[in-house]
Amino acid sequence: MTRQIKVLAVASAGGHWTQLMRLRPAFRGCEIVFVSTLDQGNATGGARFHRVPDANRFEKLTLVKLFVAMVRILLVERPDVVVSTGAAPGYIALRLGSLLGARTVWIDSIANVDELSMSGRMATKVADLCLTQWPHLARPEGPHFAGSVV
């Protein structure tokens, strides 16, 4: 019997989380672990869930707490793939997951019609695959447009 691929799916609360939940069918057949900034455990269909602090670039101390929490989660879970729809928790998870050998996927927010999010611009430089919901934002080096995936 082959081992299931373990996916760590990370998103901030609100629209990022809603978009991540819309991707659940893509994870069928995988072991999935969710991470968010609010207690979303009841929305995961029984999958494991970790809560992390909500932070942004203006909250340096909270960002450090988020970083430490994400290190702990990644060391415990050891995912094969890290997927995020944004924002800061997802970017940090991608960076750390990459260091641990996980494949990384960033799906930029559908709300970013005119330009990539700040996290999306940063993730494009480090993610194995970076996707945008909008064809006019796609670039040869990424993000790529593969249809409206969310």
Automatic annotation (TrEMBL):
Entry-linked InterPro entries: Oligosacch_biosynth_Alg14 (IPR013969)
Principal location: endoplasmic reticulum
Domain of life from the UniProt record: Bacteria
Molecular-function GO term, any one: N-acetylglucosaminyldiphosphodolichol N-acetylglucosaminyltransferase activity
Subcellular location(s) of the protein: Endoplasmic reticulum membrane
Keywords from the UniProt entry: Endoplasmic reticulum, Membrane, Transferase, Transmembrane, Transmembrane helix
Membrane topology: Single-pass membrane protein
One GO term (biological process): dolichol-linked oligosaccharide biosynthetic process
Name of the protein in its database record: UDP-N-acetylglucosamine--LPS N-acetylglucosamine transferase
Taxonomic placement: Bacteria, Pseudomonadati, Pseudomonadota, Alphaproteobacteria, Hyphomicrobiales
